């Protein structure tokens, strides 16, 4: 059994940190090894602690979560990061991605999303709440209209894997077993794929997979 993910938790509200720590430490594969009350302390703590994942509140005194993320990306490129915020704010979201974070979790649903966000980040995947997915699609379409350079695909590599298996007729449980992920994660990927591509159901996904060359007709 692999060692649990070692987490540094940074939030300027002690009560919030306590609640989040209870959520995280209740999982056998996650453990909070350090806490910080602001971005500066979070960056400083990394010098003396072995950490795999840093969870940063965006709005903190002395140094914000985004400022801290930039410093961590520069000084500790192997450490992964998640941003935590009260605000469904596109600017914060995009700045977080630019700063090197792998995901953006809203505090209002942290009890539901934080665990999966941590696990997705440690698998090398991004974690985006539905509003963030919409913002990414809008940004992609804006780039297209302005003639900017587009990414090769709007889907992540993992989403393409899920799409291919769904189009080949796999059930959510079979996809989960094939990719060694949970059924809940498969459902989340499927929802993100449908939203990103503006599709409705499995038939639409299959047609898209054929057009994209993911499967043969």
Q: Span from first to last CA?
A: 41 Å
The description of the largest β-sheet is: 6 strands, parallel
Poorly predicted spans: none
Mean pLDDT: 84
CATH topology of the largest domain, anyone? Rossmann fold
The tally of domains stands at 2
CATH hierarchy: architecture of the largest domain: 3-Layer(aba) Sandwich
The general outline is globular
Which strand order do you get reading across the main beta sheet? 2-1-3-4-5-6
Structural class: alpha/beta
SSE order, one letter for each helix or strand: EHEHEHEHEHEHHHHH
The fourth-level CATH homologous superfamily of the largest domain is: Response regulator
GO molecular function, one term: DNA binding
Pfam family, one: Response_reg
Protein name: Response regulator transcription factor
Keywords: DNA-binding, Phosphoprotein, Transcription, Transcription regulation
Characterise this structure.
The chain is α/β, with parallel strands linked by helices. The protein has two domains: 5-131, Response regulator (Rossmann fold, 3-Layer(aba) Sandwich), CATH 3.40.50.2300; 157-212, Orthogonal Bundle (Arc Repressor Mutant, subunit A), CATH 1.10.10. The chain is built from ten helices and six strands, in the order βαβαβαβαβαβααααα. It has helices spanning 14-25, 39-45, 65-75, 90-99, 110-122, 130-146, 157-167, 172-179, 183-197, 202-211; strands spanning 5-10, 30-36, 53-57, 80-85, 103-106, 127-128. It has a six-stranded parallel beta sheet with strand order 2-1-3-4-5-6, with helices on both faces. Helix 2 runs parallel beside helix 3 (65-75), helix 7 (157-167) packs across helix 9 and helix 7 packs across helix 10 (202-211). It is globular and about 55 Å long.
